[in-house]
């Protein structure tokens, strides 16, 4: 029996025995379940978008405007959903997008996600803003595929260190996120006046880095602020999140404050230009993908600069309110690229039909984000695994029911 039918059978047989899925299958149900568990600050950070969140809505509404036209009598009894990316054969065209500060969802954070991804051999793109270091997550994943997302810091020395560490962790590609050189106007977070990085959350890649430890000594002197119970609690959280076991030694050292100060001042570089990509080419032989491309001219420029792939992304609607949706941007980018390099897509993927539509419009693969984060909140490692199993199953069934027995048969002719 095909893998997707086995997953269906498992759910239905469990239901016959009186066991309902602990992780909701539908995205709406999954989000509702996660919201009940997450703190208001955590839910706002994960669910929210920029400004009035029109980009967040467009990412979904534009997918729903596209319709699949199923074809019949095509012998889809045997199906192959595998794709090849940079010399690796993947069993499905699905990757886990980089999502930062996963400790907001569950304490095992990136390690739980890495284990779940490894169990299904799904590539996991490590976040630059992770809650656990890339070394710790890699150690839990065996030989399963993983990539590394790079936020280009103001320090090229730190960029080099991150890339070298990614290579040592057997990451097989570097994903440069271009659309977050400044933090977007995220209204849900602003209403709660909450930024997790100020508590030392989501900076594990930095505090575990030897170059960053040296750069911390350059931190600006601490400015005096009015002491309140809120600020004391923030200092406690900051100290708890800094590496090391002895709380009072960490508190006395003040290094947790230096780490947050240095991170805030250095984490991203708005002065970055196309010419800077040459530096990355000089320090690594790994494939380099640019994440955040939405304009065909930028796709053309990326090819001229010798990058190895593009991820069409608007950061899940979290950066520019009123931005073009990714599925709307995809066709013109695919037309420019002309299969010279792989084009991937993220932002707005909620199920198998979305994946099918993205592939029909020319994407090589897709990255999912919020669904697996909600799975992490609801069920930890197992929650992520079930979300992945459900997504893979949904896609494979959609492919077969639409009359396609392989990825190559998913074309624009499959859409209306």
Structure report:
This protein is globular. It has helices spanning 3-16, 27-37, 40-47, 54-65, 109-119, 134-139, 156-168, 187-191, 204-207, 210-215, 229-241, 247-253, 255-266, 277-283, 296-304, 326-337, 352-360, 370-401; strands at 83-85, 88-90, 94-96, 124-126, 146-150, 174-177, 288-293, 309-312, 343-345, 365-368. The protein starts with a helix and ends in a 15-residue tail after the last helix. It folds into 2 domains: 3-188 and 269-414, TIM Barrel (Alpha-Beta Barrel); 204-266, no CATH class. Helix 1 crosses helix 18 (370-401), helix 2 packs antiparallel against helix 18 (370-401) and helix 17 packs across helix 18 (370-401). The strands form 2 sheets. The chain has an 8-stranded parallel sheet. The chain has a two-stranded antiparallel sheet with strand order 1-2. By secondary structure, the chain is an alpha/beta fold. The longest helix is centred in the last third of the chain and has 32 residues, at 370-401.
How would you sum up this structure in a few lines?
The protein is α/β, with parallel strands linked by helices and 416 residues long.
Strand content is 5-15%
* Cα-to-Cα separation, first versus last residue: 31 Å
CATH superfamily of the largest domain: Aldolase class I
By DSSP (H or I, 4+ residues per run), the number of helices equals 18
Task: Look up the CATH topology of the largest domain.
Answer: TIM Barrel
CATH architecture of the largest domain: Alpha-Beta Barrel
Oligomer: single chain
Beta-strand segment tally: 10
Tell me the number of structural domains: 2
**Order of strands side by side in the largest beta sheet?**
3-10-9-8-7-6-5-4
Shape summary: globular
């Amino acid at each position: 029996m095909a893998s997707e039918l086995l997953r269906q059978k498992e759910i239905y047989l469990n239901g016959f025995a009186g066991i309902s899925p602990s992780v909701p299958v539908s995205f709406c149900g999954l989000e509702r379940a996660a919201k009940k568990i997450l703190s208001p600050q955590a839910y706002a950070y994960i669910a929210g978008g920029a400004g009035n969140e029109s980009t967040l809505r467009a990412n979904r509404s534009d997918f729903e405007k596209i319709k699949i036209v199923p074809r019949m009598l095509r012998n889809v009894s045997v199906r192959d959903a595998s794709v090849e990316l940079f010399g690796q054969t993947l069993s499905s065209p699905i990757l886990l997008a980089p999502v930062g500060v996963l400790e907001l969802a569950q304490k095992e954070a990136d390690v739980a996600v890495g284990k779940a991804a490894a169990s299904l051999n799904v590539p996991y793109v490590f976040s630059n803003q992770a809650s656990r270091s890339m070394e710790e997550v890699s150690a839990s994943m065996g030989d399963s595929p993983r990539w590394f997302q790079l936020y280009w810091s103001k320090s090229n020395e730190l960029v080099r260190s991150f890339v070298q560490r990614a290579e040592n962790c057997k990451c097989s590609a570097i994903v440069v996120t271009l659309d977050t050189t400044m933090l977007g106007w995220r209204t849900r977070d602003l209403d709660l006046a909450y930024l997790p990085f100020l508590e030392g959350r989501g900076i594990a890649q930095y505090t575990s880095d030897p170059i960053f430890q040296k750069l911390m000594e350059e931190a600006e002197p601490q400015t005096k602020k009015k002491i309140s119970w809120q600020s004391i609690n923030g200092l406690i959280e900051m100290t708890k999140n800094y590496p090391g076991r002895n709380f009072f030694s960490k508190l006395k050292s003040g290094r947790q404050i230096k780490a947050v100060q240095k991170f805030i001042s250095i984490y991203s570089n708005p002065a970055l230009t196309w010419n800077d990509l040459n530096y990355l080419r000089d320090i690594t032989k790994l494939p380099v993908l640019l994440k955040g491309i939405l304009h065909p001219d930028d796709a053309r420029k990326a090819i001229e600069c010798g990058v190895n792939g593009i991820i069409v992304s608007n950061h899940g609607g979290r950066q520019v309110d009123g931005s073009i949706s990714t599925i709307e941007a995809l066709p013109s980018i695919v037309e420019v690229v002309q299969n010279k390099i792989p084009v991937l897509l993220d932002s707005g993927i909620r199920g198998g039909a979305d994946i099918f539509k993205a592939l029909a419009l020319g994407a090589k693969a897709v990255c999912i984000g919020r669904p697996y984060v909600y799975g992490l909140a609801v069920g930890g490692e197992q929650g992520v695994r079930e979300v992945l199993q459900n997504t893979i199953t949904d896609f494979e069934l959609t492919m077969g029911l639409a009359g396609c027995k392989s990825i190559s048969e998913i074309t624009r002719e499959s859409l209306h």
